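Write out a record, fold above all:
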Amino acid sequence: MIIEFFSTIPSYLRTVIIASGFVLMWMFESMIPLFKNDKFRTGHTLINLFFTLTTVIVNFLFAVLLVKASDFTTQRHFGILYLVKLPYWLHLLLGFMLLDLIGAYLIHLIEHKVKWMWKFHIVHHTDPHINATTALRHHPGESVFRAVFTTLAVLIAGVPIGLVMLYQSCSVFLSQFNHANIRLPKWLDDGMQWIIVSPNMHKIHHHAFMPVTDTNYGNIFSIWDHLFKTFMKKEMKDLKYGLDIYPEEIAHSRLPRLLKIPFEKYRPPTGAKFSKKSE
């Protein structure tokens, strides 16, 4: 059974899944690019792969905590999914959805609403060339936030470790997919947006100007954005990637500077959140 397989999945296989996702999306990006002039940039790729590595390291360090949290919930039947007797398949389905709601959508929303957390998340948004490598472009501090919320999701829901590992693998792959510089047929992309986060839907989230940036927080399921009224549509031709407050190359394309951004004086967009007028 797939849950049993993922409950004992070796670390090297999880790494293979991440690498395979990159290779597959790079193939699609070369065949059906959204922006054809977005050529391969070695420096940009290396920076994003560095942050991918730090994300993997943080997740590895939290793996023991995740296992303990999951074992606690399954052994003691702790968590909201144990409040009523559910068929096993339904427990797994609802558990998967709760992991996405709490461990992805909720923490993402909070990062956009809490100033000091937003400053860490800025690193992800400063990328001016969105593609599959952007998926795990997270400052190590943000990776810790997300790992903590994943652990909270496990405790709140009450799910087996195999489901947690399956969710994380799906999460990485879907994040690579919806960040990839690919153009799907409009009917297909629009149809996806009712259930899962499509490439066009997430690209809107990476628009350089607010309040558009504060929309489309979903990771796997788009239903959370529809349910909580954070969904937005926008024409792809009107998009500009990055953040307007970090237009200079040294701010968005130099690793030492990116690592320091959360600890620098905040640059508020004019009339936007956390500006002096809004505080």
Summary: Residues 2-263 form one domain. The mean pLDDT is 91.
